[in-house]
Design a protein that fits this description.
CATH topology: Nucleotidyltransferase, domain 5
Largest sheet: 5 strands, mixed
Helix content: 25-40%
Number of helices: 5
Strand content: 15-25%
Shape: globular
Strand order of the largest sheet: 4-1-2-3-5
CATH class: Alpha Beta
Structural class: alpha/beta
Distance between the termini: 61 Å
CATH architecture: 2-Layer Sandwich
Order of helices and strands: EEEHEHHEHEEH
């Protein structure tokens, strides 16, 4: 579940998108599929209540809230107040998302608020979304998204992907953020699972192939002068409970 909050008083709108990772296209092939969309003008508290409701309808969906500029903070706080348990936390190295890292090097959340706070990867998000749409990896089921794609252009001397003047791309950026985080998080999760599987397999092989240890010779019990098994009991010991 991807959530892009607006201020509520500007021209842009709030968008909520839910993506099915186990979707099946019309040809029976697996794909990523859009299954729910909301677009409208709501304040952050109300958006948090809506996201909590829709997320629980879809099995406590993994929720990514756009908090760049602080527009999603009220939504995140409301979802935390409602005890929504599946929120995305920024990785401190999200800018270098292509770097492979050991899981032990990833720092803990250390009190940071959940949400997506990295604006530096906007171009990568939009380019990745455009590539997924172009190669038919993602199924769009919304006329609003298709209408926004019709006004989506390469803009300026740097040919940056953006909407035309007077138009909006709220649903596109919301979907792009959700898909980007999904790919980044799932790749990291997959690497962690593969590492765990390798460790467990190695432990299993070593356990099965290791020869059983031979029994060690029994050692005689030489008690110290002031202690013996007979005097270990509290009742028999002159020291009572101090034994």
């Amino acid at each position: 579940m991807s959530i892009d909050c607006s201020r509520g008083d500007a021209a842009d709108r709030t968008a909520i998108e839910i993506i099915d990772l186990d979707g099946v296209d019309d040809d029976g092939k697996p794909c990523l599929e859009q299954v729910l969309e909301y677009q409208g003008k709501k304040l952050g508290d109300t958006v948090g209540e809506m996201a909590n409701y829709y997320g629980k309808m879809y099995g406590d969906a993994f929720a990514v809230v756009d908090c760049v500029g602080g527009t999603g903070d009220a939504c995140v706080l409301m979802m935390q107040r409602l005890k929504y348990k599946n929120l995305f936390y920024d990785d401190v190295d999200l800018k270098s998302y292509t770097i492979q890292r050991e899981a032990s090097t990833i720092p803990v959340k250390d009190g940071r608020a959940p949400g997506f706070h990295t604006n530096a990867v906007r171009d990568q998000m939009l380019i990745g979304f455009a590539d997924m749409v172009r190669t038919n990896q993602f199924k769009i089921r919304s006329r609003r998204v298709i209408a926004e794609l019709d006004t989506w252009i390469y803009k300026g001397p740097t040919a940056r992907i953006d909407h035309q003047d007077g138009c909006h791309d709220d649903t596109i950026t919301c979907l792009a953020m959700g898909l980007f985080v999904m790919k980044f998080s799932l790749n990291k999760l997959q690497r962690a699972r593969e590492k765990d599987a390798a460790i467990l397999q190695a432990w299993r092989v070593n356990t099965l192939t290791t020869k059983p240890e031979e029994p060690k010779p029994e050692k005689k019990n030489f008690n110290l002068p002031f202690y013996s098994s007979k005097t270990a009991s509290k009742n028999n010991s002159p020291y009572g409970a101090y034994m």
